[in-house]
Amino acid sequence: MRDNNNRSTFLRKSLLYVVLALCAAGTGGALLYASQEVREAEARLARLHRATAQEREAIHVLEAEWSFLNRPERLERLAAERLDMDPPVPKTLVHSVASLPEPLKPVLPVVKPAYLPAPRPAAQPSPTPAASSSQASFRSLLNKLSSGETETGGGPHVP
């Protein structure tokens, strides 16, 4: 029986050693995998730092070039050479808003094009007593404007 007991103890110890060896090998493999991942991540980080430094350098060069190209004396020289422009003279400068010409008024078609649909009548809300007086004054203003009268009542406005 003692021999049997020694044998079971030996098997238990052997099994324990095998399990411990497998655990050590698994831990070593996991450690190796993690260290490789860290090295790859560090290499990627170094590449990103180099790329960022190169981009900053390129931005710095472009900003310097932009400043060089946008010097006022250079732009004046180019405008004089290529755009055939002269410096402004005092008589061409605007001194007041009144000296500006009247803007062109848009020309609206007299007849509605056939491809446009007919307008739908809008629903008329019932006017409130306070709103009816403002609507009446608004309508009278519209009538005056459409007939060509000015606010002073002096007849049609001729620009």
Short description:
Helices cover 62% and strands 0% of the residues. With 159 residues, it is mainly α. It has a domain at 2-81.
Describe the structure.
This protein is an all-alpha fold and 159 residues long. It has a domain at 2-81. It has three helices and no strands.
Key structural traits:
159 residues; mainly alpha; elongated; disordered C terminus
Topology:
Blueprint: H1 2-69, H2 72-82, H3 129-147
Helix content: 55-70%
Low-pLDDT stretches are: 153-159
Overall geometry comes to: elongated
Order of helices and strands: HHH
Q: Mean pLDDT, rounded to whole units?
A: 82
What separation lies between the terminal Cα atoms? Answer: 130 Å
Q: What is Rg? A: 45 Å
Structural class: mainly alpha
- Tell me about the largest β-sheet: none
How many separate helices? 3
- What's the total number of strands? 0
Strand content: under 5%
Oligomeric state of the chains?
single chain
